[in-house]
Amino acid sequence: GTGVRPRRPSLGGGIPARGRELGTQGRQTVRRLLEAGLAEFDERGFQAARVDDVVRRAKTSHGTFYLYFANKDDLFRTLLRDALHDMAIITDDFPIVTSNEAGRAALRRWIQSFTDTYAAHATVIRILSQAEIVGEQVYGDGLRLLFRLSEAIAQGMTAAAASKQADQPSQDSAQHAELTALACLMMLERINYLLSVDVRLPREEMIDRLSAIIYAAFHTP
Q1: CA 4, 55, 80 angle in degrees (round to 5)?
Q2: Taking the model in full, what pTM does it have?
Q3: pLDDT in the model for residue 199
């Protein structure tokens, strides 16, 4: 889209660039290297992609690469910072879903934006799911985000109902909501994963179905 996007966390570059403020040209070079890296990871997978290929695709030199990134892992982690950043924004945006048409519409809009965000970072998320590649620290960040998102869903789906029946102290229903949210999120993630690996699912229809299922999981008639 058009519109001014906030500056990506990744545009500061990797480890070698952290201590310095990059100018416009530096940021453009970083962006070119990141785009080249993403394309290589997408085509070859993480293991087979090489700095050589990234440099060739970005039409730049090894020397330039190492001004901004320590190695291939550093490049990947820099891409991952953007994915985690965008997913954190989505997490904070989960709406309070009321039991009416407005609630359904808000939920569907959120699922749509989750799907857009997932698609934008699909390559990175795919690599992230291969835990042995990325190391425990990175995998842990991903898991923490997953549980935070799950909590946001549980709260957003139950907040409206909870305010109605504030006199019911129920530990059970809170735990039930959290497990339901985790199950819904796992389904949401898997379907988006399938969409990202080119399984020909009708996108809009999947968003409709996911919205209906998640809404129904919390709002029993």
Answers
A1: 50
A2: 0.84
A3: 77
